[in-house]
# Entry
Amino acid sequence: MEPEQKAYKYEMKPLFKERMQSLLPDKEDFDNFEKIVHTGPQSFIRCNTLKISTKELLTKLQKKWKVIQPFPKHPEIMLITQDLGPGELGNALEHLLGYYYVQEVSSMMSAIALEPKPDELILDLCASPGSKTTQIAAKMENKGTIIANDLKIDRIKILSSNLERCGVTNTIITRQDAIGLCAKLSKSEFKFDKILLDAPCSGEGTLRSSPKTFIMWNPKVIEKFSRQQKKFIAFALKCLKKGGTLVYSTCTHSPEEDESVIDFAVKNFPVKIESFTLPLKCRPGITAWKNDSFHKEVQKSCRIYPHDNDSEGFFVCKMTLMEEIK
Amino acid sequence: MRPQFLRSSEKKKLVEEIKEAYGIEELPFLLLEVGKQKIRAYSGNLSKDEITQLAHIVRVETMGLYILSKRDGPARINFDALPILKDQITKNIVKINEEQLNSWIRGNDLEIEAQEGFVVLQYQEDLVGTGKSTGNKILNYIPKERQIKSQTQKTIYNSNN
# Structure
């Protein structure tokens, strides 16, 4: 007799389940994935070192919550290990004062991979709501310059509000479609040391914090995003200096939006995919999906699965531009 | 946004004003004036010419941090700029207790006697806002969208001691 299947509030659509089973062919592995995506995310925050030291913030927060720093090399990442009331993180005085940013740990990985340095010129192409922009600004100690771009005015308002709350002073906010912005910048004298392309995506990695993704998931959207992401990366690379770094990230597992985009970049532009280490467990990028095979360098990408890290799902890839693109 | 940079004479005058009001001796930023007499501070490494050039190429929405308002007469430090100017602020500080803090962060005015003019409120070691003192009351300037609305907050602060 078959064991009774546990009923969840939201169910995976059959095609999504099938695709995830292809990515995670081991039954136990997939079962662990399926189990964790039906649980809420952990309560991670990131200390905003532009306003307070990690030590000072920890002291303040430990007076009311159980807080740990799970990654010794990244003390700014903090985890609240007790149950919190609704809105409690966002309503604390320390949040009001901009001492921390509520941010899921996997989404912190792209800025860590970027390794921003003070005095660099960095483009954050799809910047709103600003979690990664504020993280980059903190790493840059408010020096250098970030150009943080997004398309819609309502998203710009959210971005601006978060930058204000975090005391970011080194950023210029622009409002333009990513391709139009890159087309204009690539013809100018502005060439960037680093670019973060945290691309709009189907959001398969956000099931824990946004269960509506179970319902919204649609394979047509994946194809649409994939085409758009390839355009974005093609135009973004034209804005990089020779030797500059581009970090591409998404919060989705779909290979069309992840490895396929990296494969497109490797095969069409003078880029070198870099190896990098992150404080989360990474699985290598895949080299085949459906009828497509990808360049072997794509394996240097990092797939972050929720059940490996008790996090959300994420994808990160880091590349260097070997020759400036005219 | 067309960046309107403060001339050095304007910056000098502004620094004199905030030195008198708050004890702040320097503003190590490129300063810009935007709508409604708001002063924004940019600490990045692009020059004025580069920023102007950038604004010709792409649509610049805003830049840097809103640090001061001159809208209501003397310069008032913006709420979000307090931590980055904290080390320089030595004058017109009003210390408040936990009960006053709980009321203040919800957007309420405080019945406190202080010298008339803009003051900076301090709770323990944190600067928690600027307000306008009328002599016996401090008018609240925390932006509405930032004020705490939830009733649960009281519990959060009480457990902080």
In short: Chain A has twelve helices and 15 strands. Chain A touches chain B at residues 50-52, 60, 63-64, 85, 87-88, 91-93, 96-98, 119, 121, 142-147, 156, 160-161, 163-165, 167-176, 181, 184-185, 188-190 (CB under 8 Å). Chain A has two domains: 12-40+106-326, 42-103. The longest strand of chain A covers residues 240-250.
